[in-house]
Structures are given as C-alpha cells and as structure tokens.
Specification:
The complex is a heterodimer of chains A (about 110) and B (about 110).
Chain A lengths: L3 E3 L3 E4 L5 E7 L5 E8 L3 E8 L6 E2 L7 E6 L2 E6 L8 E8 L8 E2 L3 E5 L1
Parallel strand pairs in A: 2-11
Antiparallel strand pairs in A: 1-3, 3-8, 4-5, 4-9, 5-6, 7-8, 9-10, 9-11
Chain B lengths: L3 E4 L2 E5 L4 E7 L6 E7 L6 E7 L4 E4 L2 E6 L4 E6 L8 E7 L10 E2 L3 E6 L1
Parallel strand pairs in B: 2-11
Antiparallel strand pairs in B: 1-3, 3-8, 4-5, 4-9, 6-7, 7-8, 9-10, 9-11
Classes of the chains: A mainly beta (about 110), B mainly beta (about 110).
C-alpha cells in the first residue's frame, strides 16, 4: 500500500510564526504536491516538485515556500503565518505519466490565530 | 493557466437515482481528466480517470464522458447508494514526460438519501 504521511494532523500557530509542514512518501514517487483545501474552493495547488531539489509554483504560491532535499520528503514552509493561511493542507505524490494517480496524505489542519 | 469549473456544488438524490456532475476546463492542451472522491474526514481517492484519446469510460456504476470540442467532461453515477455520499472533485492536467500539475474543480457534495 502506498503511504503518504504528513507529520502533523492539527497545528495551532500564532500570526508571524514560521510553520513547517512535512510530508513523506514511501513509494519512490518522483512527483510530489502540496494542495490547500478550503470549502467551496476545492483543492488549490501551492507548489509541486518533479525531482529532488526541483520545485515549481502552482496557482497560489504567495506566502509559501517548499523544500525537497530527498526524494521521499517534501516540506511546505510558511515563512510568516497569517490568519488567511488557516486551512487544510494536503500533500500528495505520484509516478510520472501515464500512471498519474495522486496518493494523498491525511491532511494537516492549520489554524493561525 | 488551466482553470476547471465544476457544477453543481451540492447535489441531493434519492437512493437508486442517477447523479451527474459536470466540469469544464479552459486549456485545450489538457489530456488527462481524473475524478476523486473524498469521504467525510478522509483523504481524496481516485475513482476513475479518462485520457483525451477516449470519449467515454465505464467502471461498474460509474462512468465518465469527455467532449474535447466543448472542453467539458462529466461523471455519471447510476443506481446511487448511501455510501456514494461524499465530495467529488474533477481535475484536469496536461501530462508531459515528467508529469503534469493537476488542477481541481471546486467540488460537488453528493448526498444520497435512503
């Protein structure tokens, strides 16, 4: 079974704090993604990565950065958390095409006070 | 960039009825269209997908149709059951050698009443 593990299920942070969300996958997937899920807005892509040390911006990268030092680990960083970053964050991984199926982690619910 | 619109946002049907969810996409180069189901409190999971060289695909009670000319695709669920209640997301991507970013629709909350 593919396993995508997110380090924290629930986090509460203060405005201005630096926040790290960690994601690890055990299937040797090349591709990894960070999405943000908000009611009525669906899943919005923040950043993705095709390979180690490689990253590309998604649709809403502002206020976020990422790090991929090892193939199995993809980290999302909020340099200075703001209240509008309160959300559910979902990590996913996949093989390259033609397979393409995304395997999601359980999500990290972040509240910024 | 790619934009995916999904309708309706909520859908309520009686058990045994059919349900249809529709999506439109903006980038004509999109060539891969998956559908994900997210049950309450769980992670999204792929239920069916279709590639641009195919017009229709079926898997038991679910089917997906694709109209490339009109740039829309639909999910059809027949003989709905209470366990079909969930949020469904459509998505579109341009699959290249290294992968493609998957852009999701806004989601449809399907409720199947016994």
């Amino acid at each position: 079974d593919v396993k995508v593990t997110q380090s924290s299920r629930y986090l509460v942070k203060r405005t201005g704090e630096k926040v790290f969300l960690e994601c690890v996958q055990d299937m040797d997937h090349e591709n990894m993604f960070w999405y943000r899920q908000d009611p009525g807005l669906g899943l919005r892509l923040i950043y993705f990565s095709y390979d180690v040390k490689m990253k590309e911006k998604g649709d809403i990268p502002e206020g976020y950065s990422v790090s991929r030092e090892k193939k199995e680990r993809f980290s999302l960083i909020l340099e200075s958390a703001s209240t509008n970053q309160t959300s559910m964050y979902l990590c996913a991984s996949s093989y390259p095409p033609p397979t393409g199926e995304l395997f999601f982690g359980e999500g990290s619910r972040l509240t910024v006070l | 960039g790619e934009n995916v619109e999904q309708h309706p946002s909520t859908l309520s049907v009686q058990e045994g009825d059919s349900a249809v969810i529709k999506c439109t996409y903006s980038d004509s180069a999109s060539n891969y269209f998956p559908w994900y189901k997210q049950e309450l409190g769980k992670r999204p999971q792929l239920i069916i997908d279709i590639r641009s060289n195919v017009g229709e695909k079926k898997d038991q009670r679910i089917a997906v149709t694709l109209n490339k000319t009109a740039k829309h695709f639909s999910l059809h669920i027949t003989e709905t059951q209470p366990e079909d209640s969930a949020v469904y997301f459509c998505a579109a991507s341009i699959q290249r050698n290294q992968g493609g970013k998957l852009i999701f629709g806004q989601g449809t909350e399907l409720s199947v009443k016994p």
